[in-house]
């Protein structure tokens, strides 16, 4: 029996769920004995399963079935009719060394003098020492704030929820880009907010297009590495947002989730208008999506309300997660991972530019996303369905649209596929789109 046959049989068992994620597979020697093959052939079997993204080998611990790549949520739209080839709908960047980072960090926590402290309840928003660690880290992003103005949360989405709960009331108007992060739509609906879409241009949001009679309570902005359009607003465009907020006497909610990907960006909005800007970010993209650690920086006038919001909802970040995250912020691990992410994202963009050359795309050269405009005869729902039939999951533009206009486009998230497979996946995507006849 060849290694391809054995690998195909094991791959089918894994994909069908017969062998669930987390299962420890036989050693190379045991697999060789079970299948009647040479140990060298067994090694090639496991190399092939790893190449397919189905297993992960850990020195000294064995080979394990890995969780499926990408976010597998309960939504029917995420159930593909064939085995998944790639999830281009959701970014979960990881680096090869992060499993080792986690083990070392957990061993360090286990050896700490007062590990019992991780089982105690912390103040809503976190302890001062942990908030100070985040404040020190944020200095590198141009956000200069006191620890008292930093609140720790269970992820960036939780930080946004906390801010909106503290600074808005049902019926308030939230100005948002006409194409923006989908999570803000969900939060606005949950808080009973009305959305005022801001037309987008090549240079950024056109705030002047909002009628002066619109009573805007807050502006949600992603000035650095925008999701999904990738822009990095210049100083003039940032100043216009601040001028708008001061003229309308409204707040700014600045999302810095992807800001680490552009270290040379102009100062954040929070630095330009700290008295009316709430800055949110987290570790989902620069460290790991599963860490669920976020933070919000609020002006003095709204910090107490945000603490009350946390007290009635999630309370903040769990102590164990906080200890991991702030430890990595303080010892330089996050800085190192951000450098790795920037190099990785730039490499993926180079691959995407080659694979998608000639198509109508928008992307920052160091971002993890590509905005792909389809041709007039290509409907985005049809395109997404065809790609799903090929095992490729993508996001359609309607997920990002906040107004009635739905551009004919797809958002491609580049972070999940193995780097050496990304070009082939994007080529497959392009070939599939080419099958859509005019």
UniProtKB/TrEMBL annotation:
The keyword Signal does not apply. GO terms for molecular function: DNA binding; DNA-binding transcription factor activity; pyridoxal phosphate binding. Keywords: DNA-binding, Pyridoxal phosphate, Transcription, Transcription regulation. In the C-terminal section; belongs to the class-I pyridoxal-phosphate-dependent aminotransferase family. It comes from Dactylosporangium matsuzakiense. This is Transcriptional regulator, GntR family protein. Residues 1-68 form the HTH gntR-type domain.
């Amino acid at each position: 029996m060849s290694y391809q046959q054995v690998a195909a049989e094991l791959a089918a068992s894994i994909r069908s769920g017969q062998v669930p994620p987390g299962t420890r597979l036989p050693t190379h020697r045991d697999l060789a004995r079970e299948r009647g093959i040479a140990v060298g052939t067994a090694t090639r079997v496991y190399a092939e399963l790893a190449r397919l993204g189905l297993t992960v080998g850990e020195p000294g611990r064995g080979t394990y079935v890995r969780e499926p790549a990408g976010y597998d949520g309960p939504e029917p739209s995420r159930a593909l009719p064939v085995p998944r080839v790639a999830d281009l709908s959701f970014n979960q960047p990881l680096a090869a060394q992060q499993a080792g980072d986690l083990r070392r960090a957990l061993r360090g926590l286990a050896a700490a003098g007062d590990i019992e402290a991780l089982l105690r309840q912390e103040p809503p928003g976190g302890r001062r020492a942990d908030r100070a660690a985040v404040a020190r880290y944020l200095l590198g992003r141009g956000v200069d704030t006191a620890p008292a103005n930093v609140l720790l949360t269970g992820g960036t989405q939780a930080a946004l929820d906390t801010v909106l709960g503290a600074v808005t009331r049902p019926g308030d108007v939230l100005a948002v880009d006409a194409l923006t992060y989908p999570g803000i739509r969900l939060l606005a609906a949950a808080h009973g907010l009305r959305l005022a879409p801001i037309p987008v241009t090549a240079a950024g949001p056109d705030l002047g297009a909002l009628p002066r009679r619109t009573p805007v309570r807050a502006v949600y902005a992603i000035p650095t590495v925008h999701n999904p359009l990738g822009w990095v607003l210049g100083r003039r465009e940032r100043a216009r947002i601040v001028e708008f907020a001061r003229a309308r006497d409204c707040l700014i909610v600045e999302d810095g989730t992807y800001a680490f990907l552009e270290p040379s960006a102009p100062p954040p909005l929070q630095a330009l208008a700290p008295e009316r800007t709430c800055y949110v970010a987290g570790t989902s993209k620069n460290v790991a999506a599963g860490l669920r650690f976020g933070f919000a920086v609020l002006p003095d006038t709204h910090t107490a309300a945000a603490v009350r919001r946390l007290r009635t909802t999630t309370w903040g970040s769990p102590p164990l997660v906080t200890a991991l995250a702030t430890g990595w912020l303080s010892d330089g691990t996050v800085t190192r991972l951000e450098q790795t992410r920037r190099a990785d994202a730039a490499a993926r963009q180079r691959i995407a530019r080659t694979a998608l050359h000639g198509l109508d795309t928008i992307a920052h050269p160091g971002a993890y996303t590509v905005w792909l405009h389809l041709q007039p005869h290509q409907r985005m729902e049809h395109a997404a369905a065809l790609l799903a039939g090929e095992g490729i999951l993508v996001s359609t533009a309607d997920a990002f649209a906040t107004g009635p206009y739905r551009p004919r486009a797809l958002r491609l998230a580049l972070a999940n596929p193995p780097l050496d497979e990304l070009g082939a996946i994007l080529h497959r995507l392009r070939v599939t789109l080419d099958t859509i006849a005019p």
